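Hi L.,

As promised, Cytochrome c biogenesis protein ResB:
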Amino acid sequence: MLKFISSIRLAVILIATLAGMAVSATIFDQAEVFSSTPFLVVVGLFFVNLLTCTLSILPRLAKRLRRGVRDLPEGAGAYQASEASEESVRAFFAKHRFAVQESRQGEVRYLYGVRGRLPLLAPHVLHLAILIIIVGAVLSNFGVKATMQVAEGDIQAVPKKIAEATDLKELAVQSFQTEYDRQGHVDNWRTTFELFGADGPVGSGDTRVNHPYKKGGLSIYQMGYGRRFDVNFTTDSAETSGGYAFPEDQKIPLADGYFILQAMGKEALLYMEYDKDGQMIRQEALKPGAGLNLTNGNRLDYIRPLEYTVLELKYGHGVQAVFAGFVLAALASFMLLLGRYAAVGVRLDPTGAVAVRLDAKGRERKRLAQHLSIKDVTKRND
């Protein structure tokens, strides 16, 4: 049973299943698939498969890494005759940077050259990286997130579930800017903000699209922006009179209809009033500081435009785990670039004859055989 759980066959089945579910979720726009129980179950099975596979080969890997000249067999039958001389073998070891150990048993001497221990570890480091990334991805599903709409210069309480998970109490937007490239096209949007806890400021930073702010388990993403209009609305009722921040392009109800506000340039707005049937009955342009009397006796005074930023706050340690896994995966890739693992055992008998025992795979094994003048390399020595 354990052999099947750690098998490549099961890994292929699980990877194919995950790929199929991911493709289905993408085609049919079902993002909830990635947090669904079936998907998490398959991910969990793949985690167990990869973990058991990694653990099962660790003893053999450790034995291979500790192997030295003391572990070489003494019998001549365990080696392959070579046409190379002792001097050429030593020169080969020196040229290709093998770490060399030597020993003597009676009149027979042994050499053991090894290189590429780090590349030998690379696949296992990559396994570990994938395991950490899986843990991080699952943890991300159990994190908390919320959205805030904050105008430049305003300070606002962070959403309750973020406040409960962190020590944060408030977020103040210091500036919100649209960034342009050299051709004058919109390049990005940047929000600069300050974070407050119960005892005062606890941090500050900025966030842009695809460049989130990250600190500890908190991530703040630039999700969008919008515009509101700061107005004073006067009616015959004290309950409904007062200051409002009306959003752009949304219907604001009146007793016998509704009105819509739209931006005109950088600061002016366009007031459009409609009756119950949706027929426009009035249209007025207003600058900051101007006002107008509405048809039902109410009054609207325009104070200023409010451009707000839309921020998404996420808290959880999944992002940190995923990043750590990515760093390990990059390290594993670098380790693979250092070459391939190769170990060569050499038996030198009193007559000067040289015999070789190889521990290498594929092209590396063939290359070693060629340089060390071994004719028969069909059998691999582990």
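Residues 88 and 309 are 71 Å apart (CA to CA).

Thanks again for sending the construct details.

K.
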